[in-house]
Specification:
With 238 residues, the protein is mostly helical. Among the domains are: 8-70, no CATH class; 128-186, no CATH class; 190-220. Helices cover 38% and strands 5% of the residues. It is built from nine helices and four strands. It has helices at residues 8-12, 27-37, 62-65, 67-70, 87-99, 133-149, 164-177, 194-207, 212-220; strands spanning 16-19, 42-45, 81-82, 111-112. Helix 8 runs antiparallel to helix 9 (212-220). It is globular and about 60 Å long. The relative contact order is 0.06. The mean pLDDT is 90.
């Protein structure tokens, strides 16, 4: 696209492009999006720079923070009403974010609608500290058991893990000990195996022979193929 040999807007026949979670785009993603816009495609971007979670793929919240400057004349609309968090949770989150906000962060003044509910819901926030992972897992299980006994549907309870690999086993074992129904943190499926990926890719290619993503998956499953592969340099003939 940079070289002018490919026009994605014309190739795909698109006139409008909607991008959600714009804060999770990396610099290459942003080059593509703005390159498409320069070819006349109308953009609609939504996101929150405080929720940029994909730094492992070089995502940058600068993309949404600088969007109005990159696309002069665009509409700029801010959502201020929060449906997700009760006041106790939202207040703590906003205090933490403002204390450690990055330079260029978009300032927000969120208002939770739980405060004006009938009756108002204040919510609760607890900060726990444990001497071991086992103690933490047991406390989580006891807390969940109390919620279930109070009438909360187990499917309405979410446990957020910092590391599935190091925390899931102990927490799931503790939930079993306290007879709390749960869904495993990560169920293995055939699609998560090399054989499953190869099968799905092959079927996709049968349906659409020019499915380049499926072709890349097949190539990536082979040894010696990919950006990290080292190929011997050809030797000059004597």
């Amino acid at each position: 696209m940079d070289a002018g040999t490919l026009d994605p807007a014309e190739l795909l026949g698109i006139t409008h492009l909607i991008i959600d979670e714009f804060q999770d785009l990396n610099p290459m993603d942003l080059r593509f999006v703005h390159g498409v816009a320069e070819r006349g495609v109308q953009l609609f971007a939504a996101g929150d720079d405080d929720q940029s979670l994909y730094s492992f793929r070089y995502a940058t919240p600068k993309g949404i923070e600088e969007f109005p400057d990159k696309r002069a004349g665009c509409g700029d609309h801010t959502l201020q009403h929060c449906f997700r968090c009760a006041p106790a949770v939202l207040d703590a989150a906003q205090t933490l974010i403002r204390s450690y906000g990055a330079e260029g962060r978009i300032e927000k003044n969120l208002v939770t609608l739980w405060a004006t509910a009938e009756p108002p819901v204040r919510g609760g926030l607890g900060c726990w500290q444990f001497a071991s992972g086992a103690a933490e897992a047991a406390a989580i299980a006891v807390s969940c058991r109390r919620l279930v006994d109070a009438g909360v549907n187990p499917r309405d309870i979410m446990i957020l893990l910092a590391s599935t690999r190091t925390q899931a086993f102990e927490i799931q074992a503790a939930l079993q000990d306290h007879e709390v129904p749960y869904e495993p943190a990560r169920e293995s499926t055939v699609a998560d195996t090399d054989a499953g990926r190869a099968g799905y890719a092959a079927l996709s290619i049968v349906v659409e022979p020019e499915n380049y993503l499926a072709l890349r998956v097949l190539l990536g499953l082979r040894r010696g193929v990919g950006v990290r592969s080292r190929h011997p340099r050809p030797r000059a003939a004597a």
